[in-house]
Input
Amino acid sequence: MEKVNAIIEAIAQDKNISIKSAKEAFKTALINTAKRLEGRECNFEIVEDKEKDAIHIYKVLTVVNDDSALLELKPHSHISVSKASEYGEVEEGDEVRVEFFLEDYGRTGSSNLYQELEYHLQRQVEQELFESYKKKVGTVVAGVVTRIDEDDNTYVEIGELKGVLTMRNRIKGERFKVGDTIKALLKYVKVDKKYGMFLELTRTAPKFLELLMTKEVPEIEDGDVEIVASARIPGERAKVALTTKRPNIDPVGAAVGSGGVRINAVSKELNGENIDCIEYSPVPEVYISRALAPAVVRSVRILSNKEGDKRAVVDISSDQKAKAIGKSGINIRLASMLTKYAIEINDVEGVTVSSEEQEEKITKTNDLSALENLFK
Output
């Protein structure tokens, strides 16, 4: 078979696959075609002649004694010593290679080759698609909604494949309709016998929030600000811990943006999810107290045990307790998820005054003193 490379290049271009994949499919198709024509128990080898740009198919036969039972049991894969001697000096156990000419089978041979080639090319196309999308796992992809089934699963067209956004991977309260363009995190590529290859999508993973913030905040994308951790209760609230090695950059201010424009853009994409940005601290007590914002805590005690469980007891006054816990416990749950500490609230007597309230009180006191001095 001559001018093979030109044929393979044309196939690769037509199927939009690599030349290497096209060549592999072509060789596999040749061997399988030969087996269909000669017998499945036959062994074949492909030899490339690069100088002549040709491919040769050889039938591999094992040499056995003239009286061996294998000559009757497996005639397509064995040859007697006497017959094999035509190809040179041989002995029992050697292998001889006899060239196989597909052209000898006429239309039957070409028809079988076409079927095999189509099948194996399709497998190569699917394999390359699988590998290309596998590299995109963990990134944000965008596509157009094409269908919503009776179970409320959303089907999204993404490039050559279909993505599936199940109800459990969808943010609470959001609804899509056919024609909508949506963004989602590519969770993994899946191959199903019934549905073929498809993409599993999610909009509920903390990673999705982090990637949206990376795209929206240049300081994060450039590496000047780093997202240390994030926690979400999708559709309700999220917390993100940020840090920076640049003393002239406020990581929280950079993430929020002027007038909240950056964080609001991310929140809008997440169906109005409230996002709290806090500055990370390597000191656990400080980190936990910041994670419980907007509550103001009195003190934090870190407890540990031999099993490695991380626990923290937070002293907090009664006026701040509701803020620390949050509606339905959402604030303390997110703080625990963010810091990886099991947080316990301990009530203490008194009223805690925030730094803003203290500043306001000082200002009012100063103003009052000025008035008193004026009328003396």
